[in-house]
Amino acid sequence: MDWNSFLAYPVEELPFVFLVLLLAFTVHEFAHAYVADKFGDPTPRAMGRVTLNPRVHLDWLGMIFFLIVGIGWARPVLVNRARFKRPRAMGITVSFVGPFSNLVLGFVSLIVMYAVHNSGVLQGMSSGMALALSTFLKYMVIQNIFLFILNLIPFPPLDGYRILEDLLPVRWAIRLQQVQQWLFYIVLLMFFIPPLRAVTLGPIFALQYDILGAFMRVLTPIFGPLQAL
Fold first, then answer.
1. Active-site residue identified among 12, 13, 29, 165
2. Cα(128)–Cα(113) distance, rounded to whole angstroms?
3. Is 108 domain-assigned?
4. Which one of 118, 172, 197, 221 has the fewest beta carbons within 10 angstroms of its own beta carbon?
5. The pTM is what?
6. pLDDT tens, 61-97?
7. How many domains does the chain have?
8. Which residues of the chain have pLDDT under 70?
């Protein structure tokens, strides 16, 4: 049986994808929890979420979905915005910092990739180890940029929806909440029906290559062209 036809990633690369998602989800949810805690909401700390322990943040079903279909989730951090001094402004910050942490992680990973590839470190490794490190760094860059874009889509239960709620006038936000369940079903259809996904989300997800290109235009003058493995 050709398992590659059923999975979003090549079978031999699944361990790297799993490790990358473990790190990306952990940093993302920790960022939400840490900033909410600093803004005065004790809920994340009381629930043990202000930690970099992956077991606290991982949702196994969400991880399995990500490995199979390329879309998944972690355990969301519960936040009580009423505990913030400025609920809407601080709520936007708490929502945004999760995706932003993935963007930063992707950028830092790309810097490491440049340094590793252009320093000759890979040439000193066995071919297997060099390929493993290169594959891990590749997914660290691509998946974190992807998660940044994914989580900013303004549909529930994504962070972009929470940001939109806090940006809208109160009366509009209330109306949006009244149709929230229908928006959730719509986003499920967009994610899991391939033709619909290609038309609606495809152009959005294509932005990851624009972001990657922008990062490379910044780093190439510093490190030189990225050398292939």
1. 29
2. 17
3. yes
4. 221
5. 0.91
6. 999 988 888 888 899 999 999 999 999 999 999 999 9
7. 1
8. 1-6, 228-229
